[in-house]
Amino acid sequence: MTLVKHVLNTKGRKIHVISPNALVFDALRMMADNNVGSLVVMEGEKLVGIITERHYARQIALMGRTSSETSVADIMSTHVACVRPDHSVEECMAIMTKRGVRHLPVLEGGHVVGIVSIGDMVNSVISDQQFVIEQLEHFIHGGR
User: Fold this and answer.
1) Can you give the CATH number for the domain in which 125 is found?
2) What pTM does this model have?
3) Along the chain (144 residues), what's the average pLDDT of each consecutive run of 10 residues?
4) Cβ(55)–Cβ(70) under 8 Å?
5) 3-state secondary structure of 126
6) What pLDDT is attached to residue 144?
7) What is the DSSP letter of 57?
8) Measured distance CA(119)–CA(103) in Å, rounded
């Protein structure tokens, strides 16, 4: 069973943060520049929300609003599902499915220490399955 802390050790713990007062345009630029689909919204050290590409698509583009005139606070999710480093990949996938989200901030001691995405979860499952396949092949072939 792979834990979130193992996923973070593999992918890194870099967190892309934006202020709730920033413009959505700046959030989009930051996501594009860093090739990520979400940003953690922080006021100082406090997690106050998350903004994703999906927020932009649904609350700006489809509603006829402009990203250069709308603040992150106006469209971010404030009820953020979070996980701990000791959560399993399977638990994360269940939370993502139940909540309909693709990104989960990772909290430890009340501080954001990373973020995991559905892509990270899928990569972890594939890696685990590949390891099992290799072990079974080794067993079948008698350790040759």
Assistant:
1) 3.10.580.10
2) 0.87
3) 94 95 98 97 97 95 93 97 97 97 96 96 83 77 69
4) no
5) helix
6) 58
7) I
8) 9
d(CA 104, CA 80): 8
Residues 6+ apart with CB under 8 A from 77: 49, 50, 51, 52, 55, 101
- Nearest Cα neighbor of 8 from 101, 124, 102 is 124
| Domain span at 101 | 4-140
Q: How is residue 88 annotated by DSSP?
A: B
pLDDT at residue number 143? 61
Which pLDDT does position 141 carry in this prediction? 82
Q: What angle do CA 108, 110, 113 make, to 5 degrees?
A: 45
Ranges of beta strands (E only) in 1-144 are: 17-18, 38-43, 46-52, 103-108, 111-117
Q: What is the count of structural domains for the chain?
A: 1
Tell how many helices (H) and how many strands (E) occur in the chain: 6, 5
Residue with tokens 């979070």: 82
Nearest to 41, CA basis, from 58, 32, 4, 31: 31
What CA–CA distance (Å, rounded) separates 9 from 105?
15
R_g (Cα) of the chain, nearest Å: 18
